[in-house]
Design goal:
mainly alpha
């Protein structure tokens, strides 16, 4: 049922301005995931004094809330109006960033990060919903490809822009600037974004709560593993809770009339494989972003601005080649394109793991290969998820692809950060490895033994290389599953 409070948008209404606005909003919320990684060294040495798990939570608190609430926020946009939900999200996003800028301790910082994640969850899926309704069916594939490129480039914008801001002062400068940009985006959306139809749809509060709790429990186990021990009561209890809560979520979703995300949707092999593919793609890329920022600063002595610029080789394929991907998919087919994408991404991560101490051009070449993989995978996965659901569920489609991206990002940061910490502590000098407590960050280790600077940075570099190799292996294995699902769907369609 369509409400009379909002009129359906005319598809010819300022499509270029709408596309630009939605792309900027998307780049902002995605880029903030990457920008915080550049601030990790400054956060570690700040008066907040976060532990290694505290640092991971500062990075992941935003992404976890973002990932868990992006589907309910898409449903809220369908029910209450996508433009209004998007405007509210930008306001919440700005408030959370401002709170993070003035946070006096880690708990307040985490609250600010979580609030910012809530705002981002309201922004991203409704950008997709507005974009789908503001473009004609003929222009929609092009618009979605541009939007997918904006989401991919957003990570690089966050690195470069974050590096420039952090070179001007301490980490609060980054949060204050992000809050200001969000306010400017709010004004832009208020002026250019059209109204869209509302659809009667109840919100699934029990399913949302269970989903959030299950993801938080899973990440708690992953992040606390190195500090608490993988067989500790806390870690085992966290994994057990994640399993129980995940099963409870599936049971609830199968019974409620309007589920947050109906598990039966994943009977569609194309949708399920596209979601797996999106999760894997962002697992690898944002796991890389978490390691890369500190690796360039600690391992190569780059300034924070140089570290932000150091990721540029990854962006070149996204900037130049994304517009050619739809034509390539039509000629080569989706399974072949995805296979090439995951092969390039995995190979690039693997090569990068051995280039941590190599000359920068070698390191840059590995980044370029990863960029090729992301360039190929992003547009086709976005289009396939959108095509798997009807247009009236555009908010859910946007929420689903956003959730898979951000969940992959959160898992990438948690898993890669955990392996990095374990490798770093294992390779520390004997005097530090026997210290109680063992330092889990470079800042902690340097404060205890400044004379061991080279050995400590070598330990960090070694741990980063191991983490990247694990990310490469997981990307290749999970990418194989995604390609197999897509191939099966194409075969079943042909047989039908």
């Amino acid at each position: 049922m369509v409400s009379t409070l909002e009129r359906p948008v005319s598809q010819a209404q300022r499509p270029g301005l709408v596309l630009a606005g939605m792309s900027v909003c998307t780049a902002l919320v995605v880029g903030f995931v990457a920008a915080i990684n550049l601030a990790v060294p400054k956060l570690a040495a700040s008066p907040l004094h976060p532990t290694s798990s505290g640092l991971l939570w500062i990075v992941d608190a935003y992404v976890v809330v973002f990932a868990c609430l992006v589907i309910p926020a898409g449903a809220a946009g369908d029910k209450f109006g996508r433009k209004g939900t998007l405007l509210a999200g930008l306001g919440i996003f700005a408030a959370g960033a401002a709170l993070s800028a003035v946070a006096p301790n880690v708990p307040v910082m985490l609250i600010g990060r979580a609030v910012t994640g809530l705002g981002a969850a309201c922004v991203l899926p409704n950008c997709v919903g507005i974009l789908i309704h503001a473009t004609t069916p003929q222009r929609r594939p092009h618009a979605l490809a541009v939007w997918a490129a904006a989401s991919g480039i957003g990570g690089v914008v966050g690195n470069v822009g974050g590096g420039a801001l952090l070179s001007l002062g301490p980490y609060p400068v980054l949060f204050a600037a992000v809050a200001l940009v969000a306010v400017c985006c709010l004004a832009w959306v208020a002026l250019c974004a059209p109204l869209s139809a509302r659809h009667a749809r109840s919100l699934d509060l029990p399913g949302t709560v269970l989903f959030v709790a299950a993801v938080i429990a899973l990440l708690t186990g992953i992040i606390q593993g190195p500090e608490q021990g993988w067989t500790s009561t806390v870690v085992l209890a966290a994994f057990a809770c994640a399993l129980v809560l995940g099963l409870a979520w599936v049971l609830v979703e199968l019974r409620v009339p309007h589920p947050m995300l109906d598990p039966r949707l994943f009977r569609n092999p194309l949708l399920s494989s596209a979601c797996v593919g999106m999760t894997v793609l962002f697992f690898g890329s944002f796991g890389l972003f978490y390691v890369n920022a500190s690796l360039l600063q600690y391992g190569r002595g780059f300034s924070v601005l140089q570290a932000g610029l150091g990721i540029i080789p990854l962006t070149l394929p996204l900037l130049v080649g994304t517009r050619y991907v739809p034509g390539l998919i039509r000629r080569a087919g989706l399974p072949v394109t995805l296979a090439a994408a995951f092969l390039l991404t995995g190979a690039g991560l693997f090569g990068l793991s051995f280039a941590t101490a190599a000359p920068y051009p070698v390191y840059a070449a590995a980044l370029f290969v990863i960029g090729l993989g992301v360039m190929l995978a992003g547009p086709c996965l976005t289009a396939e998820i959108a095509a798997s659901l009807p247009v009236e569920q555009a908010g859910i489609a946007g929420g689903l692809q956003s959730a898979t991206r951000e969940l992959g990002s959160a898992l990438g940061v948690a898993v890669v950060g955990t392996i990095l910490t374990a490798g770093f502590t294992h390779d520390l000098p004997a005097a530090l490895s026997h210290h109680a407590p063992v330092p889990h960050t470079v800042a902690e280790a340097l404060a205890l033994a400044p004379a061991e600077h080279s050995t400590i940075t070598e330990a960090f570099t070694s741990g980063a290389g191991a983490a990247l190799r694990v990310a490469a292996l997981l990307t290749l294995l999970a990418g194989t599953l995604a390609v197999a699902g897509t191939t099966r769907d194409r075969r079943d369609t042909a047989a039908g």
